[in-house]
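User: Can you predict the 3D structure for this chain?
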Amino acid sequence: MRVLLIEDDQRLARLVAQVLRAEHYQIDLAYDGETGLDLLLRGIYDVAVIDWMLPGRDGPGICRMARMHCPATALLLLTARGQIEDKVVGFESGADDYLVKPFAFEELLARVGALSRRFQRSSSAPNELRNGDLVLDLRNRIARRGLRSLDLTPTEWNLLEYLLRNVGQTLSRQQILDYVWSYDHDVQPQLVEVYISYLRRKLNEAGERDLIVTVRGMGYRLEAARA
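Assistant: Here is the predicted structure, written as structure tokens:
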């Protein structure tokens, strides 16, 4: 698997690259935002690990560009910013996961591994998930309800995908946290509520049934489509 690491702290970048290479990842390095973005837009990477603060272009800016042009690349954002407001900004920019500095190399490896597994689909996997008029085209990463396209952020996509894979089942907030935010134990449970609210606004137009049910004290459930 090929990983791009964009980190301006060259000593840290070399250490991280050494750790990843020891696990048989193929690593390319960039020490500034512009160089990193140029490499990333080649579309050859499975995972990109991106520092937030970079010369030339910051991490969230790189994530936004990558989401438009490299939807199949998993994005892990590194930052010293640990507040929930900063995490929301990071996820909204297109990051799939978020790791706060300083971090243990074991956790970094776990997150990169989890992202690679999430983004690698076997040829036997379904090409779409469907519940009534709600459809996720997994191959082309297109979401729609009826004839209406849904413009989802990567986090909203992962949340909706998890709900669709478990139609009719009540999922706890912790289950959703574990799937959507992977190994990020610092993510607060209220972030689930924030993204459920975001997703509801995009799924439901006037007159459409709200498919997401809040189960008080337990979590959320995507209702099965009516026959």
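Confidence is low (pLDDT under 50) at residues 121-125. The longest strand covers residues 74-79.
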